[in-house]
Amino acid sequence: MKRFFLKIKDWLSRLSFKTGVIVLACCIPCYIFSFAQMLLPISATAKGVLWVIFFGLAKTFQYAGISILGVEGYRRIKARLTRKKSSEM
Q1: Three-state secondary-structure class, residue 1
Q2: What letter would DSSP give residue 15?
Q3: What is the DSSP letter of 26?
Q4: In tens digits, what is the pLDDT along the chain, a chain of 89 residues?
Q5: Which DSSP category does 36 fall into?
Q6: Quick one: which of 66, 56, 68, 58 has its CA closest to 28?
Q7: What is the pTM of this model?
Q8: Residue 45 is part of which domain span?
Q9: Which of 22, 24, 42, 58 is a plausible cystine mate for 30, CB 3.0–4.6 Å?
Q10: What number of helices (H) and strands (E) belong to the chain?
Q11: Number of folded domains that form the chain
């Protein structure tokens, strides 16, 4: 089992920063769809099923993107966002 997790870790470390950002950005539409489907005129059961599917996809994309980015990627994104905010003021 340990070998399996090491292989996954190695594979994730070979993915690029850009791939991590794209995967992380995919969670935004899934979050929007998970809550926007409440406006559809369908049964409550169907709404619940759609919410579980889209919210689960959003969380999956979120955690996969964070795993691909890692600590350094997170720092790069945070630095870019804070730099833009400080230049606007």
Answers
A1: coil
A2: S
A3: T
A4: 889 988 887 887 788 888 888 999 999 999 999 999 989 999 999 999 999 999 999 999 999 888 888 878 878 888 888 876 666 65
A5: H
A6: 58
A7: 0.73
A8: 2-88
A9: 58
A10: 4, 0
A11: 1
